[in-house]
Every structure is written in C-alpha cells, then in structure tokens.
Amino acid sequence: MTKKKYKICRRLGAGVFEQCQSPKFMLSQARRAKTQKRRRRRVTDYGLALIEKQKIRVGYGLRERQFRNYVQKALSSHSKVATPAQQLFQILESRLDNVIYRAGYAHTRSLARQLASHGHFTVNGKRTTVPSYQLKKGDVVAIREGSKSRVVFNEIGKRLKAAKAPNWLSVDEKNFTTTVNGVAESSDPFFNFQSVIEFYSK
C-alpha cells in the first residue's frame, strides 16, 4: 500500500481502500491513537458531511466532477421505490468496474477499473473498455476469451467461488460469467449516502 493511500485511510477510515482493511493497519491505527497526545479540534457539521462525501468518492475511485454528476442524476430521479440516496448507491454499484470487483474478478476496485479499461471484459458478448459503463438487469459480464490466459486470471474459478458476490449478481464460476439480476439493495454501513445527498442539496 502506498503512503498516499495510507494517509487517506487515516483521514477517512479503513473502509476507503481494501488494502487498509487488514490487521496490520488496524494495529498501527490503535498504536497511533495511544501515542497521539494532541487533542483534535471538533469537526463542524459541514466538515463531517465533506468527509462522508470524500469517503464515497475516493472509495469508488471517482473524480469530483464525475461524482457530482452521479449525485445530480440521483437528485433528479423521480423514482417511487428508491430515495435519492438509494439511487446514488445503485448508480455507483451498477458501474462495470464495481461489478467486476463485487463478483470477485479483482480484489480491489482500482484493479477492477484497470482490467475494464484494458478491455479484458465483455458485456453481453461485446468487448467494453469503459469502467463507468452502467449495467442493467439481464446484462452478462464475462472475461474476454483472449484474456483468460492472462496471469491476473489464474485460478479465477476458485476466486469467484470464494468472493461471495451480493445476491443481485449471479456468478457462474465454471464459465467465468456474471449476470446482473437486479439492483443493489443494502449499502456498506461505512458509506453514508444520505449525508452526501443532503450535502449537495444545500
């Protein structure tokens, strides 16, 4: 893990990057808390909301403008079954790179984004190089035939089986395919999507 990511995890929390969710990082954080003598200043409500926004933006690997566009899309949605916060969560989870990560093809979102941009995956049989591609119910994601022999996909069947994909995704460990069954339902409690919606609504 790079020093830059380590600093971000210390500021925003271990849930931002998968590499920070390790016993080693948790131990270092506990030691740091014990040795830290100076008192932290009280964070304002605006500051707290800004931190929550940064958690999601950094966690999903998005640029500020891109993230803001997703928020605006969620706010302008007139869905009767999902709140703007739920809409934002579903939009982010429906990205191709996130589905690649959730299904278990990659152990981090950053790696998933790289694999997608390099064209190692197909959507409904067509090679796709756009990590932000929005998937919908019925779409099938698969490793491109010419990419299956790549080192990064060694023992991919075992990794897919061990990944425990969410129930809105159906993973075929034998054929290395993933089908989108619907929309994401419950978000990671580390991310506060409602706080972000309120932040942009002011």
Overall mean pLDDT stands at 87
Instruction: Figure out the total of helices.
Output: 9
Order of helices and strands: HHHHHHHEEEHEEH
What would you say the CATH architecture of the largest domain is? Roll
Distance between the termini: 36 Å
Low-pLDDT segments? none
Q: Classify the fold: give the CATH topology of the largest domain.
A: Structural Genomics Hypothetical 15.5 Kd Protein In mrcA-pckA Intergenic Region, Chain A
Q: What's the CATH C level of the largest domain?
A: Alpha Beta
Strand content: 5-15%
Shape: globular
Largest sheet: 5 strands, antiparallel
Structural class: alpha+beta
Radius of gyration: 18 Å
> In which order are the strands of the major sheet placed?
2-1-3-5-4
User: How many β-strand runs?
Assistant: 5
Q: Give the % helix.
A: 40-55%
Query: What number of domains?
Result: 2
Name the CATH homologous superfamily of the largest domain.
RNA-binding S4 domain
